[in-house]
Amino acid sequence: MNETVQDKIARLLKNSGRTLSAAESCTGGQISHLLTTVSGSSSWYVGSVTSYATRIKEQVLGVPTKTIRDHGLVSGEVAGAMAEGVRKLMKTDYAVTTTGLTEGGDEWGNPEGTVWIGVAGPKGTKTKKYHCDLGRKGNIRRFANVALRFLASYIESDNK
User: Fold this and answer.
1) The overall pTM is greater than 0.90
2) pLDDT band, residue 105 (cuts 50/70/90)
3) I want to staple 92 with a disulfide (CB 3.0 to 4.6 A). Which of 9, 21, 108, 114 is the partner?
4) Is 3 helix (H, G, I), strand (E, B) or coil?
5) CA–CA separation, 13 vs 124, rounded Å?
6) Which domain holds residue 141?
């Protein structure tokens, strides 16, 4: 049987006794949905913030207004700050985040289908830019899967 990425994350976290949280903008809860399909996820998955509104990114996740103003909502800087913010808020070992455009472009030149993914953990924060053109629903599904694969890779490298 092939292991799903969420099953792999579950195995890695259960084996290490570590925990995970998420902050999602453009994926609107899809990452959380995928993680909670794994039986026993409550032992390692703490929760999430769906931060569609800019003020939630700022007030709940602690993303500095200046970071948003200087780099735009769809940026590695914002994805990283979201990851650090939700990790601190939820007191978890790891965090994964998404901020992007499932449809339409933005004033920063990001085209439709652009996402920045952030992961944070004991070894710091990393970000990754990804682009696809699968329409709104397809982009959400792909963004969530790519984010989880990025997170799994980060956790694996942290465990070495």
Assistant:
1) yes
2) confident
3) 21
4) coil
5) 17
6) 5-158
